[in-house]
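// run 5 | inverse folding | seed 20
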């Protein structure tokens, strides 16, 4: 019996240590990961509120900062943060981490307009210029996650006369293979009309789409599709669509992008328009 107890106790200790290493980002505006434990170090990625991280090292380097006039104390820790397509390893300030499981929240900032998407984790698409992001910002999501049926709260920092939010989507063709797939994102698309999102109490609620919406497309000639697949996907994928209209065709249609458009009229009757593009992973 003594040997059994000695075996069980280390297991419990190890389980407790693993549980304590898992934390969630509690900073409402997100938390930067950095290449070294220093506020001046280069940032790697901004982690959204509610993002799960794993603490892999405690540096012992203490830090005190002022946040809203209040002193916040903590320590630099090294973490693993998991994004849809990558593992980010870097240092964060642990005062903005919590063991409490949090609902992911993503904040989109434009000049004078901030939108918060609840229960949705977004990742900013790379290679967007600062100038382009003043009017349109692109994000991507995990496979199987979309911005449909999500709560949005909005904060407008200037006086305005009217404000409306609209939603639309576009579909694209994907050529499926065993595992990998080739998405024809620069070819033809079906573009839906802009539909206003209703305001409910203190928030907006995004629209959802049914199977009919997900599979709408524009007319095309089969030879057009084959030429596009040959050029952008290669001969291997071309062989998969010898009969694109057959029941076993590898060509599929689904929503590739969902758009949110904010239209505001300021006090001088100037229109302000901002767009958020959500890139939806295609394939399985």
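// decoded
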């Amino acid at each position: 019996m003594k040997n059994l107890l000695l075996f069980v106790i280390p297991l419990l200790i190890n389980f407790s240590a693993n549980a304590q290493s898992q934390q969630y980002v509690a900073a409402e505006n997100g938390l930067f990961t950095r290449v070294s434990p220093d506020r001046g170090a280069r940032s790697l990625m901004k982690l959204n509120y509610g993002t799960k991280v794993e603490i892999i090292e405690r540096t012992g380097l203490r830090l005190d900062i002022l946040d809203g006039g209040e002193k916040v104390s903590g320590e630099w820790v090294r973490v693993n943060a998991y994004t849809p397509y990558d593992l980010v390893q870097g240092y964060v300030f642990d005062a903005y981490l919590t063991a409490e499981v949090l609902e992911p929240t993503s904040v989109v900032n434009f000049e004078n307009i901030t939108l918060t998407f609840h229960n949705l984790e977004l990742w900013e698409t790379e290679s967007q210029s600062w100038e382009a992001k003043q009017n349109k910002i692109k994000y991507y999501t995990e496979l199987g996650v979309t911005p449909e049926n999500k709560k949005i709260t909005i904060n407008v920092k200037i006086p305005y006369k009217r404000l409306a939010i609209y939603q639309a989507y576009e579909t694209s063709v994907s050529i499926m293979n065993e595992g990998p797939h080739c998405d024809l994102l620069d070819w033809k698309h079906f573009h839906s009309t802009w539909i206003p999102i209703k305001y409910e109490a203190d928030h907006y609620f995004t629209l959802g789409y049914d199977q009919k919406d997900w599979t709408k497309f524009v007319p095309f000639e089969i030879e057009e599709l084959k030429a596009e697949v040959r050029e952008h996907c290669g001969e291997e994928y071309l062989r998969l669509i010898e009969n694109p209209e057959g029941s076993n065709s590898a060509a599929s249609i689904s929503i590739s992008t969902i758009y949110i458009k904010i239209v505001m009229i300021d006090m001088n009757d100037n229109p302000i328009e901002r767009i958020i593009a959500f890139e939806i992973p295609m394939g399985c």
